[in-house]
Structure formats: structure tokens, C-alpha cells
Amino acid sequence: MQSMGPSGGARPEAADVSGLGGAARDTPRGPSRDGTAGATRRAGDGPARAADTAGVPTSLGGASSPGDLMWQVSPPGSMYDYIKVASFSIGPDGLVDQWSLRAEQLFGISAERAVGMDPIEAFIDPDRREEGQRKMAEVLDGREWTGVVPFRVPGPEGAEGLAEVYVMPTTVEGGERAAVCIVVDVRTLRRIETDLAASQAIFGQCPFGFLLIDTDLRVRRANQRFASIYGGHVDDHRGRGVHDYLRSPEAERVEATLRRVLETGDSITDMHITGFVPGSEERRDWSVNLYRVHSGTGRPIGIAWLAIDITARRAAAREAASARRNLALLNEVGSRIGNTLDLETTARELLDVVVPGFCDLAAVDLYQGLLAGDETPPGLADGSAELRRVAFASAVSDAPFVGGPAPVAVGSVHHYPFNSPCADALRTARPQQVPEEGSLVQTTLAVPMVAHDTVVGLVQFSRAKGSEPFGERDRMLAVELAARAAVSIDNARLYRREHERALILQRSLLPPGDPEASGLDIACRYLPGNAATEVGGDWFDVIELPGHRTALVVGDVMGRGLRAAVAMGELRTAVRTLALLDLEPAEVLSALDEIARGLGTPAGVQQASRTAAGRPRDKDLAEVYLATCVYAVYDSVTRRCTFANAGHLPPVLVEPGESALMLDVPPGMPLGVGGEPFEEVEVELPEGALLALYTDGLVESRDHPLDEGLQAFVGALTDPARQTALPMVSRPAADSSRSLEDICDHVLNTLDTHHGEDDIALLMARVQGLPADSVGDWVLPREPRSVGRAREYARARLTSWDLEPLVDTAELLVSELVTNALRYGEGEIRLRLLLDRTLVCEVWDAGLVQPRRRRARDTDEGGRGLQLVGLLSAGWGSRRTPRGKTVWFELPLPGGETGLTDPAEALLSLF
Question: Which candidate, 335, 330, 343, 329, places its Cα nearest to that of 491?
């Protein structure tokens, strides 16, 4: 091929297409010292010139396409695929006269622009141009020069580069001196050098097995790590194939994978291979990464193999999978058992989880003493106490679970022999292996159920023949399963015990089921909001007072559960104590408010928290007790009822023939708040009227407002047969012939009580006043003969009541009380006899001094009257009245459980 020079003459041009580089190379134009000739490009040469096409890749097939600038037979694939080499020539005038295609690629300047340029002015920095001109003159004078030159590409951006330049002088036609320049990109060379060093370091120092496999699937190169695993020197592995390292069929699978990677170029990541190292039968696991390796022209030259030993990791993964299964089993046990707090149900729930997830058969035995509710720790020290089989499960058909010398049925009571593994497990609180002979069971674990250092029973896990035997991990899991079930069973036992205690506490704090009161028919209901413990803070009480009077109490301690029940018990006891002092209702609530404020103070806190300045006690050290309460005192003689309210809901009254209505009783402040006095309201109750006291749990709910609940309660107290026909304002009162028990049930069934939201207490009383013929009432003047008249009135009235056995005693005691009223009292005297379930005698006067019983000495002439009253009566006392005081005594009726005291013996006992 030829190219045209500046003069238009033809010049010889050689195309270097040797097999080393896989591309044409620029060589000096014309003769040089080594006698070579170079192919160059001058300005005006067309792109069809194919001699100078170094660096342009060809297709992998070897034949160039019509548009390629390079022709060759096959891609040889050498270092020249990576190295950028370019050439250009300089004429005698020191200007570029020929510019190769490689120069265009390296410098980014076309031949049309480069030819005629001064290379010193174009590429050398200004501060080095003088030296460059001197070097160029030397070259044109016939001297060769080689060096590394930084260059700047002409243009606005001024890109910088670093080139290794070979400048060789030559002679053109006419004998003038010229030069041929060969330029190599230094940065490319250094990058190749770095890549080679890095590749060698990575391949040699890689901690994993590294192989380079050629296209024939033979090992071309192995690193030291691979050789250390399979033995020998790294060179000993050259030429080996997959079958030299792996056994069939694993070798066939890996070889097929290698061929697929070589053909498709798709990489393989984390391919697991199982094999054996030489001289060992220990199974090893590797994770292999495969990817295809290419030459600079993109031709596949082999496969890179990177192997990591994951034997320990696979073992850890299997252990982790087993641990996950065990944790899942434990989690299921924790979520499914112990929800019912029932012993037998908890045992069955355990077996529902472990069969067949953990074993094929299982059975649970619990100590009989535990099931019977004994307080002592169940079981004997030697493990031979009686047990009851409470649960059994099997995933194997027709496989009986023996667990002893004879089959044990569910529900039967049995015990294990002293020398048996099961008894040993109970005795030592350690799991034992139970030998099985001649059965379908392969292995059995007898695991004691231990909770809080107490053995509560035994669980047996069995696996049938064909299943994997229990290992050490299984034994540990069995112990954990049994322990969790034991805790749930022990919790169920403790719950049952505490539940029974809570019921005893609640029942002891509430009045008996059928409280009795003079002039009242009583019915009551109590529903705790806490269905688990059946205790709460609501309470009611019926307290008999002197003079055939009755105190009705309903209260509600804020809160729920056992704490509220304890607070309720304290307040109820205080109410009964205050009621027996015969205080007015408002006084009772005032004293109860003081007590409630002091209940939350721990012992010693109030005194210790006060300072010399008198500051109040620390509020953080006290627990506030708040409660609401309504207190009513009913007098069966007058049928009048006095109410006092401490923040409670109003009582409801149903008069005969009238609609039910809520009494207007001032609510006052709740107990424990303090600072405000309580008011009293007195209401006269007609015969047959119905009085209802209740707590807010009956009428209050999240689903409806309080007013709606109160109206529903008022409506429920009417006749249900006519509720649908009449509006609420005109509904008649509940039929007085209906029993109070039926009315209570009707109210609870009618109202949407939402049981469980709050405690419910309901106290209903029907008024049955004392008949007029059962009352004797006389006013006596303040004179000595009134004592005799009082005896006469008493004798006559007792005789009319057919109470002759009480006449003598009643006369004596009436005489004593009237005499005391004359001697120590003031104003006129009133005598009243009341007959109901007992006989009550009351003596009224205007004096404020309360009688006090004292023991008289033998020489005293008086002071024995009240002693005599105390000896002969069933009870006596005094109370204040709005206009003085009342002294009373009570006698049991003849034929009752309590007999009369002989007056003569009582008199003799005084001396």
C-alpha cells in the first residue's frame, strides 16, 4: 500500500499485521537505524487507509467486517491489545508532516489539523518550550532522543497527559534531516503494571481456593490456598480436571455448570459443592463462585473459580435451623398453654403442641395432692406418692403408652415403683431415660415438671421406632417444655388457691345471703367486675339499730380487684362501728370521711413527714382512698327514713300505685376528699313502698351515658307486663305481691349491665312498718309515782301481747330506767314498748348526760341498776336524740333461741 507525501510523489508504506498484537502498529516512516519502515497518514489521506489501525478491536470470529479499519486472519490476543502506541513524523522544518490514526486516538487531534503543527508549541508547556526546541534541533541534527514528556492537548479544556516518546532521526529525499516519533501512553502502561501486580497479589494471597480453568476445563493455575487443601505444589494441579477432585455424580454436575458458564458468560454465585479432601472421609462443604474470564479483545480465555470452605457454616446453619424449630416450639407452648388456669386443661394443651411436633406419644401425670388442693408441697421425697394421669396423646395408631408395669388410663390414680426411672426422675428432679422392650416405642424421656423448686408432676415424651432417637439437644428441650408447663400448672394451682381465699374474703365482708331487718323485706345482689377473682370494691350492708331501726348502706370504693376489696372491708368495718354508736347519718359519713383520708397513710408516715414548721405530710408517701357511699336509717315505728349521701348515686323509691322516682338527696363529696359537711334528708315511706340502693356498675357503661342507664333502671322497677303499653311517666309501680328476689333478677336481666366493666351491688328493701298495736307509747310526768305507773303500763301491755313470761323481768328493768331518768335526767319522761322479733323498751328524757355502767362496791347503797339491766337483758344502751337521750334494753321473746335470765340469780350475782 502507498500514501501520498507533500510533493505528491508515492512513498513506500509497510503494514505491520503480525500475530503478536492483534492490531496494526505504527512504525517509523522511511529507513531508520533498525531498518524498519512505518505506516503513516498525511493530510488529505482518506479513511480507507487500513495499515494504521492499532487499538481497534475485531470480531471474535477472526474475520473483519466491511466497516473495520483493520484486517487480520485471527485475533492473536497479546499485550498490544491493552497498550496504546502511536506514531507521527516531523519534517525538516520541524513541523508535523504525517499523523497516524493511533495519534488521532491518543491526542484527540485529527490528521487535517495536526499536519503542519509545531509539536513543541502544540504539546509542550510554555516554560519548557525552549528546552524542547533545543532537543528538536539536536534530533534534526541526527541525534536520537528518548524520554517521558508531559503534553497538553490543544483546545479550550487543555487536557493533560504523560507520554513516553521515542524520537528517531531519518533522512528524506534530497538529504534533509527529518524525524519519526513513536509515542506510548505512560499512564496505560502504569495501569497495566499495577493491574498485573494486584492480580498476582490477589491470586497468591487470597485466603480462599482460587483456580483459573481454561476452555478445556483444565486447571491452568491454582493458588497456594487451594494446594494446601488438596496437597502438593501449585504446579502439580496444572492440567487436572473436575473428576480429579470430586466424586460422581457431583463431578458431572459441576462440570456441566462450568460448561454453561463458559458458553453463556453467566456468573454463578454461592454454588454449594460437597466432597472429600484427600486422605479423609470427612464430608466438606464449599461455596463456589464462577465467572468467565476474557482477554483484552473480549475473547473468553477461561473460568475463574473461587471456593470458600463453609463446612462449619453449614453445620452452624443446621444447628440454627434446629434451634429455630425448638424456639418456635417453645413459643407455641408459651402462647397456647396456661390460658385457662385449669390444671387438666393446661396438661392437655402441652400435649397438643408436642405431639407430633416433638415426639410421637406423650403423657402427663400430676400429684394427686396437688389436684386435691393441699397446701403442703405435693409428692414424697422418694418419688412414690400417688399421681393421676391427666392427659395422654399419640400420633401412632394402636400404640399403647405403658409408662409402668401396666397401662395407665387417663384419670386413674397410680404410683411408680421406687426403683423405676420415673420415680427416680421425681425423686431427683432430673430427666431419666426409660428403657423400652418389645413395644413400638423406641425411646422415652421421663421429665419431672419443676416449678419454683417444687416437683408438681411428670411428663413422658416417647418416639416410636423409625423416628430419630432423642439427643442431648432434645433432652434439654424436653426439660424446658416440662418447666414451662409446670409453671403454668403451678400458676393454675396458685390461682385456684387465691381464688378460694378471695371468695372467702369477699363473703366475709358482705352480709349473709338473707339479711333481716325490722319492718323491712330485704333482697340483695352482688356481681364483682373482676370475674377472675370475684372480689371488688362495691359493698352493701344491713345494720340493725336499737329501737327496731335499720341502717342501709351501699358504697363503692374507686378501683377494682383485691386492693379495692381490702379498702372496702376497712370502710365497711368502720361503718358498722360508727352505726353502733347510734350517730346521725351525716355524722357517720363525716367520721367515715376522716377514716378514709387516713387509710392511705402507711404506719409512721404521717408523723415522720411532718416538720417543725408543721408542713403537711408528703403526698407521694400516701395512697388516696376514695369512695362513694349512701347511708340511710329507717325507723320501722314511724316509717321515716333519713338519708345522707357522699358522692353516690341517688336512691330510687317506688311508692304503691306511683311511678318510680329518684330521691333528691344532696350528693355531697366522696369519702376521702374532706372539707365539706354532709346534709341529711328525711323521707316518710308509705307501707309497701320499694327502696332501691345501688352502685354505678348497674347503670353506667361505655355504650351509653349515665342518664340513660338511670332511666333504664327506673323503668326496670315497674311492672314488666305494662311497660310496653304505658309511657314511663305513667307506669305503675311494681306489683307489691312480687317477691323482691324476682324484682332483683328482673332488673339485672333487663338492664345492659355489661358485666365485667365494673362491680355491681344492688340492695332493695320493701317497707313493712311496725303495726300500731305492736307499739306502746306513754308520757310520764316528772314525779316519783311515775315509776309505779310505768310498771303498770308495761305489765298491762305485755299481758295483752301474751308475753306473761317477760312481765317480771320487764317490770324490774322498766323501773330501773324510769328511776334513773327521774334521778339524773331532765324534763318529762317517755316510755315506749316495741314488739317485733324482740321486745324493746325505751325510756326518753331531755337530759344530755349519757348513763355509764360501773361496778358498785359491797358497801355502796346504789350503782347496781345498770348492772342489773345488763345481766337480765339481751342488750342495752343509750343514744342521743334531737331533744335529749334514749336509754333502751332488749328482751328475747319466749320460745326463742336465747332464754331469759332468772332475776333472782341476777340479783344474787351482784353481791
Answer: 343
Tell me the pLDDT tens digit for each residue of 203-246. 777 888 888 999 999 998 888 888 888 888 888 888 999 998 89
CB 306 within 8 A of CB 209: yes
| Residue with cell string 473460568 | 303
pLDDT at 462 over 80: yes
Which distant-in-sequence residues (6+ apart) come within 8 Å of 322 by Cβ? Answer: 473
- Only one residue has cell 425423686, namely 427
Report d(CA 852, CA 846) in Å as an integer: 17
C-alpha closest to that of 329 among 491, 487, 482, 489: 482
Contact of 73 with 59, CB cutoff 8 Å: no
Phi, psi angles (nearest 5°) of residue 252: -60, -40
As a whole number, mean pLDDT of residues 275-280 equals 82
Segment of 158-167, 597-606, 778-787, 855-864 carrying the highest mean pLDDT: 778-787
Q: Whole-angstrom Cα distance, residue 881 to residue 61?
A: 128
pLDDT score of 905: 63
Cα separation, 751 vs 748, in Å, equals 6
pLDDT at 856: 52
Instruction: Please name which of 102, 24, 59 lies closest in space to residue 297, comparing C-alpha atoms.
Output: 59
Beta pairing partners, 286: 273, 309
| C-alpha cell of residue 591 | 367520721
pLDDT of residue 406: 56
DSSP line for 788-824? HHHHHHHHHHHHHTT-GGGHHHHHHHHHHHHHHHHHH
Three state DSSP letters for 246-299 = CCCCHHHHHHHHHHHHHHHCCCEEEEEEEEECCCCCCEEEEEEEEEEEECCCCC
Instruction: Using pLDDT thresholds of 50, 70 and 90, give the confidence band for residue 404.
Output: very low
Q: What is the DSSP string of 450-507?
A: EETTEEEEEEEEEEEBTBPPP-HHHHHHHHHHHHHHHHHHHHHHHHHHHHHHHHHHHH
The least confident of 234-248, 504-518, 532-546 is 504-518
Length of the chain: 911
pLDDT, tens only, 9-54: 333 333 332 322 333 333 333 333 333 333 344 443 433 333 333 3
CB-CB contact of 890 with 838 (8 Å): yes
What Cα–Cα distance (Å) separates residue 204 from each residue in 201, 236, 468, 469?
Answer: 5, 16, 46, 47
Task: Name the residue with cell 480462599.
Answer: 208
Cα separation, 87 vs 184, in Å, equals 9
Global pTM? 0.53
Backbone angles phi, psi at 836, to 5 degrees: -145, -120
- For 358-376, how does the pLDDT look when each residue is reduced to its tens digit (9 = 90+)? 898 999 999 888 877 665 5
Cell match 470427612: residue? 282
Rounded-to-integer distance, Cα 68 and Cα 53, Å: 9
DSSP string, 449-460: EEETTEEEEEEE
Mean pLDDT of 117-133: 84
d(CA 24, CA 11): 19
Mean pLDDT computed over 638-659: 91
C-beta neighbour count of 701 within 10 angstroms = 18
> How many Å apart are CA 63 and CA 713, to the nearest integer?
104
pLDDT for res 553:
94
The mean-pLDDT minimum among 285-299, 646-660, 834-848 falls in 285-299
Return all residues near 47 (Cβ < 8 A) that are at least 6 apart.
Answer: 69
Are the C-beta atoms of 565 and 536 separated by less than 8 Å? Answer: yes
User: Helix (H, G, I), strand (E, B), or coil: what is residue 221?
Assistant: strand
778 — phi, psi (to 5°)? -135, 150
Are the C-beta atoms of 900 and 892 separated by less than 8 Å?
Answer: yes
Cell 400430676: give the residue.
366
Q: Residue 439: CB partners within 8 Å, gap ≥ 6?
A: 399, 400, 402
